[in-house]
Amino acid sequence: MAKLVFIRHGQSEWNLSNQFTGWVDVDLSEEGVKQAKNAGKLLKAEGIEFDQAYTSVLTRAIKTLHYALEECGQLWIPETKTWRLNERHYGALQGLNKAETAEKYGDEQVHIWRRSYDTLPPLLKETDEGSAAKDRRYSHLDPRAVPGGENLKVTLERVIPFWEDQIAPDLIDGKNVIIAAHGNSLRALTKYIEDISDDDIMNLEMATGQPVVYDLDEHLNVKSKNKLG
Ligand SMILES: O=C(O)[C@@H](CO)OP(=O)(O)O
Questions:
Q1: Which of 11, 130, 131, 96 is nearest to 61 (CA)?
Q2: CATH number of 2-227
Q3: What pLDDT is stored for residue 10 in this prediction?
Q4: Tens digit of each residue's pLDDT (9 = 90 or more) over 58-117
Q5: What positions constitute the catalytic site (predicted)?
Q6: CB-count burial class (<10 Å; 0-12, 13-18, 19+) for 181
Q7: Alpha carbon distance 157, 70 (integer Å)
Q8: What confidence score (pLDDT) does residue 138 get?
Q9: Sign of the dihedral through C-alpha 161, 163, 166, 171
Q10: Active site residues
Q11: How far is the C-alpha of 112 from the C-alpha of 90, rounded, in Å?
Q12: What residues does ligand 1 touch, defined as CB less than 6 Å away?
């Protein structure tokens, strides 16, 4: 039986200022650093020995992983970073204040943009300022694979190949895995491993910096789920 831990990054500067973030590479806030360190303390108390870490190519998740692993004395474990664990791309909403956007377009529209499974946000064009197409960390990708905006469905469709190719084989080998990622990339993974419906996933939220510990059997069925702290 393998253990799988999800941690959404600690509070970011844009979580604090209530801005749509997506692929914008904002840092952790002071509170976010505290949350990440606290996650490490909670994991240490659980006594989990990790074999492999996975994270995105965004600073807030990478730093959360490192603060947490340092607190539990496991900063040395192998880690892999992938764009496939990035936050969902929020398109042209990135950078906008969520409350101001709700005043302009209405609460319902903003709720649909944030939580509907298959509604896309307004898209960014490749030539728009802030497009990820110009960012060196995505230069190895086919330009058509660099999104201009994603819903949860599209996010799931790019997270799951990585799960199947890399993470699932580790777990089947009995390795304990920690994934430090983002609210929506982790909601996508949660939907997949817990087989949550398209409607019910709208109500699932991930708290910043809170480790979620799964025990999985050899077929990767969930045997238990425990939110720490
Ligand atoms: O702005 C974002 O990128 C995400 C996570 O902070 O927000 P939401 O919870 O609205 O999907």
A1: 11
A2: 3.40.50.1240
A3: 98
A4: 999 999 999 999 999 999 999 999 999 999 999 999 999 999 999 999 999 999 999 999
A5: 9, 87
A6: buried
A7: 32
A8: 96
A9: negative
A10: 9, 87
A11: 12
A12: 15, 20-22, 87, 90, 114, 183-184
